[in-house]
Amino acid sequence: MAARTLGTLVGTLALVGLAACGSGDSGSGGTGDSGAAPKIGVFLPLTGENAENGQQINDAIELRVQQVNEGGGIDGEEIELVVRDDRGEPRTATNIAREFAEDDDIIAVLGSFTSTASMAAAPILDTAGIPHLSPTSSHPEFTTMGDAIFRGTPTQNLEATGIAAHLFENLGHSSTAVIYRQDDWGNSAADAFAEGAEASGGEVVASEAVAPESRDFRTLISSLRGTDADSLYLALHYSDAAVLAEQLAASGWDPTVITATSLYTAELINLGQDAVNDWIVPAFFYAESKDEHVQEFVAAFEEAHGEKPDAFGAVGYDTMSVVVEALGSVEEYGTQGREPLGQAIYDVEVDGVTGTMQFDEQGDVEKTITWLAIEDGQFVPAAE
Q1: Residue 361 within a domain
Q2: N or C: which end of the chain has fewer CB within 10 A?
Q3: Comparing C-alpha atoms, which of 37, 189, 57 is closest to residue 111?
Q4: Model's pTM, two decimal places?
């Protein structure tokens, strides 16, 4: 991948813009099955260590549905959401998927936040023929697990290699250490970053996995400080990363820190405070963008929820917008509408707050990454 400050990456979800569908106009299609309303299952971590991320996505999905229903719904039928808390646990996600699969009224499912939970649910939903859209699952194998599985974020094969190219080719670093979360997502991020580093002429001098919810990184920091690394790449979630940041600052070691897109969240700054200043954070959405579509979405989200959306909220909004757009072309809801809806999602081409997207045959779409830095407790555009 050619290195640049804004790098085009491939994800898996076509997205609908606020301006394109903020009025609630969802097309001229389906009248539903015997008058039944379109029913969408949603499963996300609403409690547990990723609750903030899951809540952002859920809030944005509910905002989009509220806009559609207030605008007349889908040909007069209001969308119904069935929301479940998977706590980020694959076993819980599996149970929820079974519940959704047994509900003949559910036409599509959105979830989860983590690749691990999304992949646990995928075979069950695929067997039931239910289109499955995860806003944020980036494990490369996720969309290969069925016929109508989509993601709203680039695979780690693309994201992490692009981050490596930026670090070594644009920023001029020569060596790095990797700290990654020991789960499906973290493993794929670390592997892809290592491949990208090699392709970009950089060296990964150490790569260390940490268990989810780890709280003591001091021995690890001391060990990595003894290497030749002039930078750190972090594939972590905010709860882990904030603790690492405090202990890294206390150690006196000051490498350049570059992160996965998972850390573009206000919770990182809220928890990490000054310790995360100067970190470099990639994002597929920037709430301070001057783009009119983005600002309309940000204003609506703030009015509804009293805070600004992050990238997870934005892609959750766009994911729901894709379903809204595709629902307009199906003739029936429930079980009879599942296969037509899956095909319609592949055919969608729309403009979203995270960019203009269109699916390829695997369910992938192009996205553009923006490089941000943390300065004085704020995300700001990084210097080129």
Answers
A1: no
A2: C
A3: 57
A4: 0.85
pLDDT in tens, the chain (384 residues): 333 233 333 333 333 334 333 333 333 344 444 337 899 999 999 999 899 999 999 999 999 999 999 999 999 999 999 999 999 999 999 999 999 999 999 999 999 999 999 999 999 999 999 999 999 998 989 999 999 999 988 888 889 999 999 999 999 999 999 999 999 999 999 999 999 999 999 999 999 999 988 999 999 999 999 998 999 999 999 999 999 999 999 999 999 999 999 999 999 999 999 999 999 999 999 999 999 999 999 999 999 999 999 999 999 999 999 999 999 999 999 999 999 999 999 999 888 999 877 778 888 877 888 999 999 999 999 986
Domain termination site, one of 251, 283, 315? 283
Confirm whether 377 is domain-assigned: no
Inside any domain, residue 371: no
Q: Are residues 105 and 39 in the same domain?
A: yes
Q: Is there a domain that residue 3 lies in?
A: no
Residue 347 CA neighbour count, 13 Å, CB half = 12
Amino acid at 72: G
**66 in the same domain as 92:** yes
Indicate if 144 and 54 belong to the same structural domain.
Answer: yes
Name the token pair of 2.
């050619």
Of 230, 227, 163, 171, the C-alpha closest to 192 is 163
Q: How far, rounded to the nearest angstrom, does the alpha carbon of residue 307 sit from its chain's CA centroid?
A: 18
DSSP-derived secondary structure letter, 72: T
**Listed residues 283, 311, 327: the one ending a domain:** 283
C-beta of residue 344 within 8 angstroms of C-beta of residue 333: no
